[in-house]
Amino acid sequence: MATERRRATIYDVAQAAGVSKSLVSLVLRDSPSVSAPRRAAVLAAIKELDYRPSQAATALAGGTSQTVGVVIDDYTNAWFVELLRGLQEGLASAGLRIAVSDRTLNTHVESDPLDGFLSTRVEALVLATEPTPAMRFSSQIPVIVVGNRATQVPGADVASSDDRLGTRQAIEHLVSLGHRNIGHIGGGGGSSMLRLAGYQEAMKAAGLDEHVVSVSELTTEDTGYRCTQRLLDEDPDTTAILAANDSMAMGAMAAAQAAGLSVPGDLSIIGYDNSPLSGTHLLHLTTVDSRNHDLGLHVAQQVLSRLADPGRDAQRVLLEPLLIERGTCAAPRRP
Amino acid sequence: MATERRRATIYDVAQAAGVSKSLVSLVLRDSPSVSAPRRAAVLAAIKELDYRPSQAATALAGGTSQTVGVVIDDYTNAWFVELLRGLQEGLASAGLRIAVSDRTLNTHVESDPLDGFLSTRVEALVLATEPTPAMRFSSQIPVIVVGNRATQVPGADVASSDDRLGTRQAIEHLVSLGHRNIGHIGGGGGSSMLRLAGYQEAMKAAGLDEHVVSVSELTTEDTGYRCTQRLLDEDPDTTAILAANDSMAMGAMAAAQAAGLSVPGDLSIIGYDNSPLSGTHLLHLTTVDSRNHDLGLHVAQQVLSRLADPGRDAQRVLLEPLLIERGTCAAPRRP
């Protein structure tokens, strides 16, 4: 860890390398028009002086921050981590950085979660959360909405996984194991609505009665716990539960435990998201993979193609989800 | 959600309000020298034009981004969430924003996790992770290290919780319940080393033999699972385990379950961090609270006092941790 006394400027680099400031700029932009020896001299000077281009200066001069802003729901619901990995992979060749904020990170200074990103002039905004009325978008900054949302953003690209198909697959799996009494716990928001619709379609197709307990609040471990308690209370013969996401499924596992039911012996549970939590030894949760890593790669493509052609039509990508079988499903023990 | 055609500038606001650009600046800085009617006119114009000051311009003009950069370990280990809440509370009055990055967010474009923050000219850097050799600090930007770290950052403030005292309290609690055979699972890094030292001190003070299984890798659910398997394998008479953090404790719970041991009937488990995970219904984990929210408030104070007086001596804050008793500890059933 070195400390520096004064920040080197582009002029220092130019002087040390014996070239013009414009030539340093060309090297920084990786221009092919610079000769190999001059490029080497500039790179050596950059290293020697520990020069780092100022994003503030770059942003003001060229209007670009080389950064993509990502707004996520909430740091405690880590479904977005694989999305970020895919986004990293897809943005690497373009040299675009990523900045992440959850919706509440700057509520102490501003009401709009986009403010910080817009004022630092991000290249594009990735909205991995439900749009809210507080969000004021700029027509100059492309928006890519990730996931199925209840509110549309005019002109935005959308990249999502087919949530309706995902829950249909999950119910078909439970039905194939012999379950007839399958409950669903869910919440509000666009994804939850589609996951509910897929559940209802699949139950109807199998000739089964639906049983839904949902909350308007966030889909958390705590709401999953409380929904499951109510569901088991209303119908003690329930043999399987499909949760709207992994956090709620975790709460369902706790409620089963509290009710003296073993998982999957007495109660099968399926989550949704294939979040890092679902893959832990403790949960080992059967879940639906929204393929967030692939989604991140697609979002990166949408960002890059939009930056290359700002006027192109809005795109919509819909990925087919995958059921991930782990340890929380079995044939029903009870009739 | 409004969309705008062209971004309003400070000049547009001045023109619409019939005042000078300097007066708009004064209103933005909340100066008391502006008369109420003129302030009202400026605020109305700001609202009407949807004007948002550019951080890039502010940064270049005044050298300030009004943002504090926070580097965390890893988005999937959510211990930092309460730290952020405290930081928000403490920075609100100063109007300072927060930007967060985990150590790997921009590894696709840069090797140094500080690069992005330094190039956007953050006011201060909060390092809530172990410093690495790749990090190059700037002498112009104050650093506050959160937590006890193996590597020191010269001149930095430090805000931490007394990790050694925390594990001593945990062991004293287990001893008071009647446990004699208490194992410890841990990892690398400064906090882990101090937590290990506290365990060793308390075991020695109680006249008990220590039994430690640790990894050099990250302290995750998976390493917690594997360390516990080895610990139970080496000493099947273990009646209690103290984990270096909540993630490892979660893995310990899974390993106990896999070994057919009930928690806390057959095995008591204590975590560390009082992370959101520990408070879930499924874990309901007894843990040591590092008081991360209070730590966030202290860090905010350190940031503000350092910005007010850049030349002041480095400060060190050490908080006393608290044992949080939940459901994973009981008297030992086995002798």
Automatic annotation (TrEMBL), chains A, B:
Residues 8-62 form the HTH lacI-type domain. The keyword Magnesium does not apply. It holds the Pfam family LacI. InterPro entries: HTH_LacI (IPR000843), LacI/GalR-like_sensor (IPR046335), Lambda_DNA-bd_dom_sf (IPR010982), Peripla_BP_I (IPR028082). Keywords: DNA-binding, Transcription, Transcription regulation. It comes from the Bacteria. CDD domains: HTH_LacI, PBP1_LacI_sugar_binding-like. PANTHER family: HTH-TYPE TRANSCRIPTIONAL REGULATOR GALS (PTHR30146:SF109), LACI-RELATED TRANSCRIPTIONAL REPRESSOR (PTHR30146). This is LacI family transcriptional regulator. It comes from Glutamicibacter halophytocola. The lineage of its organism: Bacteria, Bacillati, Actinomycetota, Actinomycetes, Micrococcales.
